[in-house]
């Protein structure tokens, strides 16, 4: 019974039951053949994204490894060490000397010397900033001798500054002991 109702509902619908034209099949096969021969845009589009990402990765890798392999061994170092082994020794010497002087300076810290030491540290920081600029100049100038001399001069200025501050601290200590001495006659 239920099936009869279903078929009755279908009879009420207006279906197009006309026969297609005689050349319909030929036209359909012709369209089908031309589609199979034409390049498929979807596949090319799907390949474009992975291929472009691979190309981008290769370019980045080339730039990264190209910079690593094209620079000399000492260029990985910074400052004077990038110039030559002798300059690396010079930089190490000055750096060690400056570190030693800084430790001495910190050992002399007291309420009377605090201001002098803090001022010296600010001046050292300015010299460090100047040195960083010189490092950039060294890379850009292709190891210009004037820049190398300026870098060595910067190290010497730091050491001179630290020596001056240590001398001032020694003077302050001597004045303190002289003030505290009592004269016995």
Can you offer a commentary on this structure?
The chain has two domains: 48-77; 78-180. Helix content is 77%, strand content 0%. It is built from six helices and no strands. It has helices at 2-12, 24-37, 41-70, 85-107, 114-141, 145-180. The radius of gyration is 42 Å and the shape is elongated.
Structural features:
coiled coil; elongated; mainly alpha; membrane; 2 domains; 185 residues; 0% strand; single chain
Residues in β-strands, percent: under 5%
Shape: elongated
Largest sheet: none
Low-confidence parts: 69-76
Count every helix, treating DSSP H or I runs of 4 or more residues as helices: 6
Number of strands: 0
Distance, first to last CA: 142 Å
Structural class designation: mainly alpha
Mean pLDDT: 77
Q: What proportion of the residues is helical, as a percent range?
A: over 70%
- The radius of gyration over CA amounts to 42 Å
Secondary-structure element series: HHHHHH
Oligomeric status of the shown chains? single chain
Whole-number tally of structural domains: 2
How would the blueprint of this fold be written?
Layout: H1 2-12, H2 24-37, H3 41-70, H4 85-107, H5 114-141, H6 145-180
Helix pairs in contact: 4-6, 5-6
Quick description:
The protein is mainly alpha-helical. Helices cover 77% and strands 0% of the residues.
């Amino acid at each position: 019974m239920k099936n009869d109702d279903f078929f009755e509902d279908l009879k009420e619908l207006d279906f197009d039951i006309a026969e297609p034209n005689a050349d319909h099949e030929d036209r359909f096969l012709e369209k089908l053949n031309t589609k199979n021969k034409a390049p498929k845009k979807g596949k090319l589009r799907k390949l474009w994204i992975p291929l472009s990402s691979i190309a981008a990765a290769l370019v980045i890798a080339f730039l990264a490894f190209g910079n690593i392999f094209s620079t000399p061994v000492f260029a990985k170092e910074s400052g004077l060490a990038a110039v030559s082994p002798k300059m690396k020794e010079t930089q190490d010497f000055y750096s060690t000397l400056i570190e030693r002087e800084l430790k001495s300076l910190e050992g002399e810290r007291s309420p009377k010397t605090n201001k002098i030491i803090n001022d010296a540290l600010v001046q050292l920081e300015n010299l460090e900033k100047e040195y960083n600029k010189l490092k950039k100049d060294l890379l850009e100038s292709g190891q210009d001798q004037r820049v190398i001399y300026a870098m060595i001069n910067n190290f010497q200025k730091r050491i001179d500054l630290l020596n001056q501050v240590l001398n001032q601290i020694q003077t302050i200590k001597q004045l303190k002991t002289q003030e505290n001495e009592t004269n016995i006659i």
